[in-house]
Amino acid sequence: MGEKINFPEFWGLGLGLFLSLYAGFLNHFTPREPFSENHSGFSSPILALETAETPKHVQDIIGVMENEEFANITSSYRILHYFDFGFIFCYMAFLAYTGHYSGRRVRPIFMKIFVGMIAVLVIGGFADLVENILILNLLDAKTAEEMLPSLEYLKPTAQLKWFCLLAYVGTIGIYFWLYERGILLRISSVLFVTAFFLGLFSIFKTNLLEIGFPLMAVGLCLTWFHYGFSLAFSSLSKKT
Fold first, then answer.
1. What is the pTM of this model?
2. Which of 16, 144, 154, 232 could potentially form a cystine with 224 if both were Cys, beta carbons 3.0 to 4.6 Å apart?
């Protein structure tokens, strides 16, 4: 009978690996540049599209129907956002597990807070789903007037998503700092908390999201590496 793997890091490593592969797959469809350089100022056309406020903002990113590249550009965005529906559930699973992992040493107190954290995560994921639908509606719009109903809700929905996700990882960062001693999780803690404050101030300066998101992503990568290292060292210690 085989030895049962009972490491909490095993699930985090598996979820993170699947999430990384999924992100790489989505990156294949992600447009690298906006149609026009004269847009909202984001380097990332995806973030620029999420925070678009006027039809011109959208057209500067995806172009106009009269342009011969319009069909290919909008097709890439559609494929990206269709597959993004699955990606939402993947990152929510990884974040939920990471949140549970961060509180495993202080369970009596943490479990009450963890329920609230999960609620925040679910709200963020739901906002991401709505955001995808709004963007798909924009891509299907044939005139600027048809874009207006979706644009009315797009930026607030995107801001709610980012606030919830960054608040969630910020809380995880606090727990990592208080209860973990590993260097990777300590660095992740600083990145998560910094990303949260950048997301908070992005209410006033939206472009701060372009700094906050990479910090969160790097923090999640370091957390994933921690799962892998912990699992490897735990396996090694059992054999020696």
1. 0.87
2. 16
Query: Does the residue 1 lie in any domain?
Result: no
Sign of the Cα torsion 78, 167, 221, 14 reads negative
User: Is the residue at 83 inside a domain?
Assistant: yes
Model confidence over 170-217: pLDDT tens digits? 999 998 998 888 899 999 999 999 999 999 998 888 889 999 999 999
Number of domains into which the chain is organized: 1
Cβ contacts of 14 within 8 Å, gap of 6 or more = none
* pLDDT score, position 240: 46
């985090």: which residue's tokens? 12
Kindly write down the DSSP assignment for every residue of 149-195, as one continuous string: HHHHHHHHHHHHHHHHHHHHHHHHHHHHHHH---HHHHHHHHHHHHH
Is residue 194 a part of any domain in this protein? yes
Please tell me the distance from the alpha carbon of residue 239 to that of residue 237, in angstroms, as a whole number.
5
Q: In terms of residue numbers, what domain contains 135?
A: 7-238
CB atoms within 10 A of CB 17: 14
pLDDT lower than 50: segments of the chain = 1-6, 235-240
3-class DSSP assignment, residue 93? helix
